[in-house]
Amino acid sequence: MTFTVTNHKTGTEFSVEPSETILDAATRHGFGFNYSCRSGSCGSCKGLLISGSLESPTEPQTALSEADIISGQILLCQARPSTNLVIEAVELPAGSSLPIRTLPCRVTALEKACHDVMVVKLKLPQNQDFRFLPGQYVDILLRDGRRRSFSIANWTSIEEGLELHIRLVPNGHFSGQVFNSLKVRDLLRFQGPFGTFFLREDSDQPTIMVAGGTGLAPIKAILESAFLDKTVRPFHLFWGVRNARDLYAHDLLNQWVEQYDNFKYTPVLSEPQENESWTGEYGWVHEAALRHFPDLSQVDVYASGPPPMIEALKSAFEDAGLAIERLYFDSFEYASDSA
Ligand SMILES: Cc1cc2nc3c(=O)[nH]c(=O)nc-3n(C[C@H](O)[C@H](O)[C@H](O)COP(=O)(O)OP(=O)(O)OC[C@H]3O[C@@H](n4cnc5c(N)ncnc54)[C@H](O)[C@@H]3O)c2cc1C
Ligand code: FES
User: Fold this and answer.
1) pLDDT tens-place string over residues 158-217
2) Which of 182, 232, 248, 255 has its C-alpha lying 20 to 30 A from 115's C-alpha?
3) Rounded distance, CA 219 to CA 199, Å?
4) For ligand 1, is residue 308 a contact (CB within 6 Å)?
5) For atom 50 of ligand 1, which residue has the closest CA?
6) Which residues contact 147 (CB under 8 A, 6 or more apart)?
7) 39 lines ligand 1 (CB under 6 A)
8) What residue numbers bound the domain in which 129 lies?
9) 36 CB near ligand 2 (under 6 Å)
10) Does ligand 1 have an atom closer than 6 angstroms to the CB of 329?
């Protein structure tokens, strides 16, 4: 049976097919809601259930606390209606929901950027219309049916293909293949674009960007696009890694500092080596950002990287006055079949 979902905030109405999630149905109808992981872990798709009921969840909804559940919060990426529903959720501007495609691609380069990050370049078939927004991600579709999410790290013409920054995860199924057996000219399949981690054009407030490790990838694409568009808003990027050898794009970022007056960059090391002659910032990257910006009431924040970094940042930045609707994040959750 098909049900209707109405967004009380905007009056938007759309139908949901049996067993379809609210998020999938909204995307199919061309409506955009915030989301990132699509697996119930990151919480960026939270909305409020005002009336109606849902099917019992099939996946653990780790992003919802007891208090969230009591107050009627739901995860749009997991919620499947069992009646007509009225919800309340922030809706994205028209044009932010692009068609999702499944395409083959060929590996054109494998560049080891540092000891545990591979820059993988992928060429798409000619004459295929693949559109994405800088900051979005794709799912690599593996032969056994599993999928792995990676952010698109570049914003150039589609003829130049896609660039991914893939960190080697200990015992990682796909990242292990990337480091050990993937070769130039191999074919892969992917699906995308996914996610709503892109620059909001409705603001010219100073923008703080916080990246952890390969969380730099979507931020690099967003910055490349902003520089190309000659965006004047100020950007300050804080990039956290363990030690100096992990700063795999340090030269490029320093070059951008020279090139663009509105760009600042602060690298932050959490576990510097004893013999490292490092004179920069130490500690957790979000704490370094707070040392520079103790009052966050007049800024926008874009953050991407490991889930613990995003969780710590959310509460610390809210305490420093950040309006939660001005925080945009991509939490690099692990694939649900990983554990
Ligand atoms: C929206 C989104 C965008 C992402 N973008 C990127 C990106 O641009 N670059 C990137 O490197 N990663 C990115 N990730 C994370 C990446 O998808 C996962 O790390 C993925 O599980 C790696 O696949 P794998 O097959 O190598 O490891 P898996 O086989 O999935 O994992 C093997 C084991 O390692 C653990 N594990 C998995 N990932 C991590 C991790 N990151 N840190 C610590 N332990 C882990 C798992 O729990 C499991 O036990 C993104 C994730 C999301 C949701
Ligand atoms: S919890 Fe729904 S997108 Fe992450």
Assistant:
1) 678 999 999 999 999 999 999 999 999 999 999 999 999 999 988 889 999 999 999 999
2) 255
3) 9
4) no
5) 332
6) 139, 140, 141, 191, 335
7) no
8) 101-194
9) yes
10) no
- CA distances (Å), 62 to each of 54, 76, 126, in order? 17, 13, 41
Residue at 287 is within a domain:
yes
Q: What is the CATH number of the domain that holds 126?
A: 2.40.30.10
Q: Establish whether residue 42 lines the binding site of ligand 1, counting it when its CB lies within 6 angstroms of any ligand atom.
A: no
Q: In this structure, which ligand is nearest to the CA of 118?
A: 1
Tell me, what CATH number does 30's domain have?
3.10.20.30
Ligand nearest to the CA of 68: 2
Q: Which ligand is nearest to the CA of 332?
A: 1
d(CA 259, CA 270): 28
Which of 88, 111, 139 delimits the end of a domain?
Answer: 88
Tell me the best of 114, 169, 330 to mutate to test the pocket of ligand 1, counting ligand atoms within 8 Å of each CB and taking the most: 169
Nearest to 246 by CA among 270, 210, 228: 270
Which atom number of ligand 2 is nearest to the Cα of residue 43?
1
Which ligand 1 atom is nearest residue 170's CA?
34
Is the residue at 202 inside a domain?
Answer: no
pLDDT digits (tens, 9 = 90+) for 262-305: 999 999 999 877 777 888 999 999 999 999 999 999 999 999 99
Together in a domain, 282 and 231: yes
> Strand 85-88 and strand 3-7: pairing?
parallel
In this structure, the answer to whether residues 125 and 31 fall within a common structural domain is no
Q: Does any ligand 2 atom lie closer than 6 A to the CB of residue 37? A: yes
Same domain? 65 vs 127: no
Atom index in ligand 2 nearest the CA of residue 76 equals: 2
User: Which atom of ligand 1 is nearest the CA belonging to 197?
Assistant: 1
| DSSP state, residue 194 | E
Distance CA(99)–CA(129), nearest Å, equals 10
List strand residue ranges (DSSP E) for 213-262, in order.
235-241
Q: Is this structure's pTM higher than 0.85?
A: yes
Asked whether residue 140 is assigned to any structural domain, the reply reads yes
Domain membership flag for residue 244: yes
* Alpha carbon of 137 to ligand 2 centroid (Å): 14
Of 169, 194, 219, the position where a domain reaches its end is: 194
